[in-house]
Amino acid sequence: PSVPSRHGAVKAEDTFKTSPFHLDLWFYFTLQNWVLDFGRPIAMIILPLEWFPLNKPSAGDYFHMAYNVITPFLLLKLIERSPKTLPRSMVYVSIITFVMGASIHLVGDSVNHRLIFSGYQHHLSVRENPIIRNLKPETLIDSFELLYYYDEYLGHSMWYIPFFLILFIYFTGCFTPVAEQSRMPVAAVLLMGPSSLYYWYLVTEGQIFILYIFTFFAMMALVMHQKRKGLVLDSNGLFLFYSFIIALLLIAGWVAWLWNDKILRKKYPGVIYIPEPWAFYTLHMNNLHAAKE
């Protein structure tokens, strides 16, 4: 008999397959997230400006380029290891959209972060920034707002929606009827800390709490639904689920810590108040460094 496509329609015989903990993939995934995503702006700030002139790509841009190639590759490898066959078309469209959104973000984020060297302050809106509001003609301000839109809204949406969709698609295959397989190895427990901390950074800096919480609720609903069938999460599912829970606690602690910050409150109005770490840095850490100098 012919072998079905790895990402074809769901088959009945796939239901009770299990897979061991993917230590290699989760480790590489977490490592490259920290180095290539979180490390992008740090590399841009600490490396000498003479190496990367302001009219050329920065070190962070090259990090972003590598991220845009490595991350979709790792996501595809993760999907391939799922014990359950998954919808091929949805996976492919999600990966294509992810790459396009991350590439749009690369350009907008590159310019926005280079503006830091000219005095741009991330805790202020585009029009409130001193280096922007005095531009002539004033239509240039509209161009910078368009750039900000591509960076913070369109780029983030096309990047993060397929990213979490792929993780959820993978999560749907992380169930087993064998209770003994619903436990994490020691390596998974150790890796869960940096993984959770990265999701905290992703949600706060990307301003995607709504997307994140809906994904978490969908995962929780699926867990309860599968539990009625006598199925429990395997080690990979537990790792992903617990990472989301810990990240949610970190987000709550972050918001509580900055709850009374009046300047950040003005930057992030509305019901959902989740300040960006880089806005906090330009507001407080830059001032701290200036005071020390």
Automatic annotation (TrEMBL):
This protein's GO CC annotations: endoplasmic reticulum; membrane
Transmembrane portions of the chain: 62-79, 91-108, 159-179, 208-225, 237-259
| PANTHER family reported for this sequence | CEROID-LIPOFUSCINOSIS NEURONAL PROTEIN 6
Biological process (GO) annotations held by this record are: lysosome organization
Has keyword Phosphoprotein? Answer: no
Origin species: Rhagologus leucostigma
Database matches in InterPro entries: CLN6
Q: What's the encoding gene here? A: Cln6
Q: Which UniProt keywords apply?
A: Membrane, Transmembrane, Transmembrane helix
What is the protein name stated in its UniProt record? CLN6 protein
Q: Which Pfam families match?
A: CLN6 (PF15156)
